[in-house]
Amino acid sequence: MTTLDRDQLAALIDHTLLKPEATRTDVTALLREAEELGTYSVCVSPSMLPAETTVKVATVCGFPSGQHAPSLKAAEAADSVSKGADEVDMVLNVGLARAGEFAAVEDEIRAVREAAPSPVVLKVIIESAALEDEQIVGVCEAAERAGADFVKTSTGFHPAGGASEHAVRLMRATVGDRLGVKASGGIRTREAAEAMVAAGASRLGLSSSRAILDGGTGSGY
C-alpha cells in the first residue's frame, strides 16, 4: 500500500462540503480549515460561490442526480466559472450509461467542457457503484473523448455506494496517465484514503479531512 506523509496526502484532497443544509458560515469554516490543513482545494455547492480562499475552488454541476438537460449543466458550469470556480465536477446521466448510450454521455460531457473550457479542470462523476464494469469503461472512454480532465467515482449521495478500490483500479486502467482519477464517497479512514491512492487515485474527495489526516475515522461524504 502507498504510504504518504501528512502533507503529501493533504495535497491530494478536495476538502468537501456539499450538504444541502450547509450555511455560508459552515463554508467559511471549511475554507479556513482547508488552508490550515494544506488541502489541494475545497469543493462547495454552486450557491456558495464565490469562495474566497488561497486554495483551489471546485464546485459541482448537475448534482447529485445527473438527470439534468445538458444545456442546463452547461449553463450551471459557465455560471460557476464566472464566479471563480477553478474546477467543475459534473454528474453524468447515469441512466444513459446504464443503457449503453455512450455517444449521448460523450455529448453532454462535451457540452459542459465547451461551457467551462481549459484551464478550468473538468471532472466527470460516473457513480461507479451503480455501473457494471463495462459501463465504467464506456463512460471513462466517453469522458476522455469529450475532453474531460478527470473521472470521479461518486457523488457520495447515491444509495448504491461510493468509491471502491476495484472501481478506481478499473478507471485508472482505462484512462492510463492521460486523465486524473478522483475517488470520493465513503472514504472515512486514512487507511482507506491511502488504499484509493494505491489503486490509482490522483485526487480524493473528503469531508472529514482533518480526522483522516490525523489517522482517525471521519464521517459524511
Short description:
The protein has nine helices and eight strands.
Describe this entry's structure for a reader.
Helices cover 41% and strands 17% of the residues. With 221 residues, it is α/β, with parallel strands linked by helices. It has an eight-stranded parallel barrel with strand order 1-2-3-4-5-6-7-8, surrounded by six helices. Helix 2 links the parallel strand 1 and strand 2. The longest helix is centred in the first third of the chain and has 14 residues, at 24-37. The chain is globular and about 45 Å long. The mean pLDDT is 96.
What is the end-to-end distance? 23 Å
3D shape? globular
Largest sheet: 8 strands, parallel, barrel
CATH architecture name: Alpha-Beta Barrel
Q: How much of the sequence is in beta strands?
A: 15-25%
Going by helix content, strand content and strand pairing, the class is alpha/beta
Mean pLDDT: 96
Strand order of the largest sheet: 1-2-3-4-5-6-7-8
Number of domains: 1
- The CATH class label is Alpha Beta
SSE blueprint and pairings:
Elements: H1 6-10, E1 13-17, H2 24-37, E2 41-44, E3 56-61, H3 70-82, E4 87-91, H4 94-98, H5 102-115, E5 121-125, H6 133-145, E6 150-152, H7 165-175, E7 180-184, H8 190-199, E8 203-206, H9 209-213
Parallel strand pairs: 1-2, 1-8, 2-3, 3-4, 4-5, 5-6, 6-7, 7-8
